[in-house]
Amino acid sequence: MSTVYLIGAGPGDPGLLTVRAKQLIETCDVVVYDYLANKEFLEYARPDAEIIYVGKKGGDHTLPQDKINELIVEKARSGRSVARLKGGDPFVFGRGGEEAEELVEAGVDFEVVPGITAGVAAPAYAGIPVTHRDHTTSVCFITGHEDPTKEQSGHNWDVYAQSTSTLVFYMGVKNLPMIAEKLIKGGRDPKTPVSLVRWGTRAEQQSFVSTLDSVAAEAERRRFAAPSIIVVGGVCSLHDKLAWFEKRSLLGKGVVVTRAREQASGLVRTLADHGAHVYEFPTIRIQPLDSYEVVENAILRLPMQDWVIFTSVNGVRHFWNQLREIGLDARVFGGLQVAAIGPATADALRERGINPDFVPEKYVAEHVVSGLLERGIAGKKVLIPRAKVAREVLPEELVKAGAEVQVLPVYETMLSQADDAEILQAMDQDKLDYVTFTSSSTVDNFFTLVDADRLREYKAAHPDKAKLACIGPITAQTLQKHGFDADLQPEDYTIPALVNALLGE
Ligand code: SAH
Questions:
Q1: In a designed cystine with 215, which of 109, 210, 331, 381 is the match (CB 3.0 to 4.6 A)?
Q2: How far apart are CA 482 and CA 385, in angstroms?
Q3: Do both 230 and 152 map to the same domain?
Q4: Do 423 and 281 form a contact (C-beta atoms < 8 A)?
Q5: Which residues form the signal peptide (predicted)?
């Protein structure tokens, strides 16, 4: 018999998962999850884990609660560990208590991993502390949607109304007119500040402050729906002063990242940190070569070269894989000069113990050549480990300058079979704000996968949306071949500069 873990997955921001929760998702045999738990967490699961969706959205239950309980018990009895993920905290309006009781009755061991509950986190992300010495000494969590089968209400509206507590309602948007009315009737000041926070802590977060007597109309006007938290009390007056999350420059903006998945994580994280809703759409796939015989020979003959020029992080990575494979290390670069085209490539070298002798100030081949010439590369033997298919400008210019160049493919880039469904849906819902291109092949492949006419149509309908951001002039030229101008292009041809260009909008 194994253990069932009742795990709180937090309110939505993937950073708000506990360390313990992450460890368990990574190790359990079965992951059972709900509608509100962020799906990104499923990526932590073992590739062979069984993943089961039992979510519910409003009244639309995928699996009734008793069936969920049965399922969990059955999995545990078969000897498999179960991570039962729930939105927020499992014991705060999450029916975690009921599931735990069932487990006890079935004789199944369980543990609870508390999570960050939406009733605290959503207000916090909207600049509302649920307690504050100037406003309240207590806070009360209330369901805004009682079990409809219950005969007698468990609410005592007069007590809520007359208490000085901050009132936090879950599942209450539909009943907001009733909630406001009962509180006013019970004696709460109609001018009490009330705030609604929808999709708290996520890129889609929206919030506003109103007063008890007009909040229902305001919520209707703004078309607020579930999932929202309703906060009633003086603390809501701090919203405008303390709101920090909604100030993020890219909050709620849909940004497409077209880089290969292997390379995209840094860019994805930075954009998400600025509030963007990131669509990962890897247009290229980085792939090892079928045979590394040529690379191996080149490594063994390395002492005969004068310079090695790395043009990408992938080049460094795949070159090193081979170096390790044959039992060598950074010492093979002993007498050589090493250049890195771009700061990320330079960092990849430094991580491997090589401090590059030359990193150009601008990161296109033409500028690199002039820098290398100044360092006396003419007449020297140069090795360039890189992708199988790449621009020929750098080797050609170096040859013209009198260098003896050997181009050494160490990996291949292939068209990735990314599914364009999410991108098309984002356009249908007017949610596509930026597309980022970090190389010419991401542009070419993007238009192999996504219909250019659909994008053109979308751009025409939304002049301030679907802005195309290119890392540099070469990428922008490729974009022009497909009939589009780059809307954004940073001064510096780097990923951080590209992000800054988006932020500066
Ligand atoms: N166990 C969960 C609550 C489940 S009840 C927790 O501790 O947070 C579901 C209700 O939670 C929703 O109707 C909504 O009121 C609230 N909720 C959950 N996630 C939310 C979010 N990201 N933003 C606003 N409200 C949220």
A1: 210
A2: 29
A3: yes
A4: yes
A5: none
**Residue that terminates a domain, selected from 98, 115, 132:** 115
For position 477, what pLDDT does the model report? Answer: 95
**56 counts as catalytic:** yes
Domain housing 50: 3-115
171 is catalytic: yes
> 240 C-alpha vs ligand 1 centroid, how far in Å?
22
Count the helix, strand and coil residues of the chain and give each as a percent rounded to the nearest 5. Answer: 40, 20, 40
> Which pLDDT score is estimated for 57?
59
Catalytic choice (171, 253, 427, 433): 171
**DSSP tag of 387:** E
Q: How many CB atoms lie within 10 A of CB 487?
A: 18
Question: Alpha helix (H) ranges present in 17-156?
Answer: 19-27, 65-77, 96-106, 118-125
Q: Which residues of the chain have pLDDT under 70?
A: 36-37, 56-62, 148
pLDDT of residue 58: 52
pLDDT number for residue 184: 97
State the virtual CA torsion across 6, 8, 14, 20 in degrees, nearest 10.
-60
Pair (221, 305) in one structural domain: no
Q: State whether 273 and 420 are in the same domain.
A: yes
At residue 370, the pLDDT reads 87
Residue 228 shares a structural domain with residue 129? yes
pTM of the predicted protein model: 0.79
**392 vs 340: CA distance, rounded Å:** 17
Whether residue 357 contacts residue 488, with contact meaning beta carbons closer than 8 Å, is answered with no
Has 150 been annotated as catalytic? no
Whole-angstrom CA distances from 438 to 242, 254, 258, 499 are 36, 17, 7, 11
Tally of CA atoms within 13 A in the half-sphere of 152 that contains its CB: 2
